[in-house]
Design brief:
Blueprint: E1 4-10, H1 16-29, E2 34-38, H2 44-54, H3 63-87, E3 91-95, H4 98-108, H5 113-123, E4 131-136, H6 139-144, H7 158-174, E5 179-183, H8 188-203
Helix pairs in contact: 1-8, 2-3, 3-5, 4-5, 4-7
Length: about 200
Amino acid sequence: MKGVFITFEGSEGSGKSTQAAMICKYLKDKGRPALHLREPGGVKISETIRRILLDVRNSGMTKECETLLYMAARAQLVEEKVLPALKQGQVVLCDRFLDSTVAYQGYGNGVDINFIKDIGRMVTQGLVPDLTFLFDIETEKGLERTGQNKDRIELRSLHYHNRVRKGYLRLAQEEPGRIKIIRVNKSKEDIHALVKKAVDALLGW
């Protein structure tokens, strides 16, 4: 049984985390081993980095520091969890991956995108998702869905988050074979049906 790597991307409030959890349950109910991870996080070291990255008290963090911290968390997760699970034949579902850094730190913060992709190849050990879902939502609507207790990234300006969304859509244009855009304009059940159909096709079900 070949391992399969599926990532879930999107701007704030897009519902990607909910959809990743729903598809993980669907796969397990069908008897297919699945692992649901989040970025940054998923393992002890990466979760520690996550707390630093999202802490609103760290407002002085530079864009370069931020980028490298996301990469460090990713490197640890790939080595500890993602690659071993894929070798075991599991379906690995990751809530954010390298596309997030390109969108948020590249298009959003202005860090050189080629630099991000170069470092990304190292930290991911060349791993590329078999399928990426991009949950696209109107920026203001998505931010409204994040609630009151916003983290350091969510607190950024609407202009910043618009750049992130545009960056994601550009990535989808560049890699239409891998990145499937799902518009967040339906119920979570209807969106789950679309995700499930694409996953079934990928797995040959």
